[in-house]
Amino acid sequence: MDIDLAELANSCGEWLRGSGPESDIVISSRIRLARNLADFPFISKASEQDRAQIEQILHAKIEAVRAAGLLPHEVHYLDVDQLEEIDRQFLVERHLISREHAESEGARGVLIDGGEQSSVMINEEDHLRIQVMHSGLDLESAWEQINQIDDLFEQQVNYAFSDKLGYLTACPTNTGTGLRVSVMLHLPALVITRQIDKVFRSLQKINLAVRGLYGEGSQAMGDFYQISNQITLGMSEQELTGKVADIVPVLLAYERQAREYLIRESQETLHDRVSRAYGILRTAQTISSEETLHLLSSVRMGVNLGLIGDVQIPTVNKLFVHTQPAHLQKLAGIELDSSDRNIQRATYLRRHLGGEVPPPATQN
Amino acid sequence: MDIDLAELANSCGEWLRGSGPESDIVISSRIRLARNLADFPFISKASEQDRAQIEQILHAKIEAVRAAGLLPHEVHYLDVDQLEEIDRQFLVERHLISREHAESEGARGVLIDGGEQSSVMINEEDHLRIQVMHSGLDLESAWEQINQIDDLFEQQVNYAFSDKLGYLTACPTNTGTGLRVSVMLHLPALVITRQIDKVFRSLQKINLAVRGLYGEGSQAMGDFYQISNQITLGMSEQELTGKVADIVPVLLAYERQAREYLIRESQETLHDRVSRAYGILRTAQTISSEETLHLLSSVRMGVNLGLIGDVQIPTVNKLFVHTQPAHLQKLAGIELDSSDRNIQRATYLRRHLGGEVPPPATQN
C-alpha cells in the first residue's frame, strides 16, 4: 500500500518512455477532469472540517474501489498534507500533482497508479481532479482511461451536477465538462527560427492556451509547451478533445518544417549547437536547472534529427525530470542547497551521458 | 636546401615541446639581436636596389657559412618576397618571422634552422634580425646560442657600430646592444582573478613591456603575454637578460598563488570552467580562432593543475599554433574562407582531443 518515493524517483513514468506516437515532438497527452461532491461547498468556501471530511470520504471510496479490484493498476494513496516539502515538490516535478496542490494547506491527498499514467488529486481547486497522462500523441486512449476512472467514482459518490450547466466546478472556466485536454510539445526549432510567438498568437485566437513545463504561470523552459483548451462549456468531451487533437498535426508540421529549414540552411550551426550542448552536459562540473533544460532541449532535437547517435530519447526525457531539484535530492538521498544541487546535477548528467569516461590518449 | 612548408606545418618547433623549465607557465624564452650593415642605409632610407643588394650579400654569406659547416643545425633559407601570402602568414603564426616582415615589401628573406630554435630575418626593420627561441625558461642558453650566431655573422660582414653607442639600429630604442629579451608567459589565473593589470603596471614601472601572442600591438589572446625589456642602451647584454630573468620567478610566484587561490576558494567553479572548455573543444562543429585560444587556455591550466588527465601539454601547445588560420590551411592543403576554417578548426580539434569517439551506450 505504501509507496517508496525514493524508489519512485529512480523509476520513470509511462509518459517518459518516449514511445508514443509522434514522440519526437509530442512528449505527452494529458486529460484531466474537475469534479466536486454535491454535498460539500467548493474548496474556496469549505471549512477545515469540510476538507477533512471530503478527504476522508474520498479516501474511503478509493479504498473500497481498490478492495473491489476495480482499479486498473497497482495504486498508491499519499496524504499530501503529511508529506515533506521535498516530496511534494518531487510529485510536482513528476507531473503527478499540481504546484497549487503542493503549496496549499489542509487535508488533501493524491492517488497514483504504479505506471504513473493516472493520478487523482483530492482537495486541489476542486474536490477531485482526475488526470491521465500518456506518452506521445494518444488523446483517444487517454480519454477512454479517464472516462473509466470517472465512472468508477461516479458510482461511489454524488457529483455536483446541473442539467443545464453540466459538472459544477470551483472556477467557472471549468464548468461544463470539467475537462482540460492538453498536449506537451517540444518545439525547439520554432523557438530557434523565432516563429513560436506567431504560432501562439494563432492558437490563442482559436481559444487554445499555451503554458510552460509545469502548468499555469510556469515559464516555457527547455522549449516545452503545453497546448490546452481554454473553454469547457458548451462543447462535448469529444468535441473538446478533437479540437486539441486536430491542431496537433498542424503544429507538428510547423515544427518539422522549421527543423528541415535549419538542416537545409544552417546545418553546421545547428549541428554545432547540438554537439556543444551535448559536450557541455557531459563535462560540466556544476550546472543550473535552467541551463540543463536549455541544453537538453538541443540534445533532444539533435537525437531526433540524427545529429547525435549515442544517446536515446528515453534517456534524455528521463534526464529532464531527474535533474529537477527535488528529484536530484531524492536520488542522492540527502537535502542539498542550490550550489550543491548544481554539482550533484552535473555529476548525474556526466554519469548518464558517458561523460566520465576519458577519451583514448591522443598521438602526437 | 628547400623546405617544405606543408611538412613544417605538420611538425612542431622546439619551443612547443613544452619541456623546458617552468613550462607550466613559461612557454618560451626568446632573444633577438638587431644588426645592420655599415655600408648600407637603414631600411627606412634604403632604395629598392639597396635592399636587393643587402639581401644578396647576406644570403651569400649565409650560404658561405653553411658551406663551411659552421651553422649548428640543418638550415633553410626562404625568399619571403616570393612566398604566397598564406606561407608568410604561416611563418608568423610559427613565430619564425614578424608580422611586419610578412607584410612589408621588397627583397627580404629568412633563415630558419630545422629545429625552429633560431631564425634570421633579412630586411625586416633592420638589415638583420637574429632570433633564438627556447622552450620554457631558458634565457641563458638562448643567449649563448644567439651570441654564437651573431659572432658567425660578425666574422662575415661589417656591422654598423659606434664605440660610444654600440650597435646602430633603425629605431633608436634598439640602439646599444640591439637586444630584446622576452619570455612568453601563460597567466590565466592572474586574468581570472583580475590581478593582471596590476602586475602589468608594476612591470611598466621597471621598464618592461607587455605584449600579446604575436608581438607588438597584438592582443593578449589565450592569456599569453610576452614580457620584454624596453630599453637596450646603457646596459650590457647580461644585465638586460638578467633583468628579464630576475622578474620571471616573481611572476611565476604570482600566477601560482592565483592558481592555488582558485583551487582553494572556488575549486568547483575552476574545475567547471576547465572541464566545459575541454568539452566544447571536443564537440564543437564550428569554432573561431579567438574562442579556440580562449578555451585552450583554460584546458592548458586544467592540465597543469591535474584537473584534466587525458591530454598532454605538448598537444595543447601544438593545438594553439595548429588551429591558427594559415596552419589550418597548410594542414588541409587547400585555401579556406573564414567560415570553412571554423569548421576545419573544429574538426581538427575533435580529432586531436578524442572528440569523435562516441561514449559507451548508457544503461537505463
Automatic annotation (TrEMBL), chains A, B:
Its EC number(s): 2.7.14.1
SUPFAM superfamilies: Glutamine synthetase/guanido kinase
Source organism of this protein record: Pseudobythopirellula maris
Uppermost EC category: transferase
Residue numbers binding ATP: 28-32, 95, 129, 180-184, 211-216
PANTHER family listed in its UniProt record: ARGININE KINASE 1-RELATED (PTHR11547:SF38), ARGININE OR CREATINE KINASE (PTHR11547)
Sorted UniProt keywords: ATP-binding, Kinase, Nucleotide-binding, Transferase
Protein name: Protein-arginine kinase
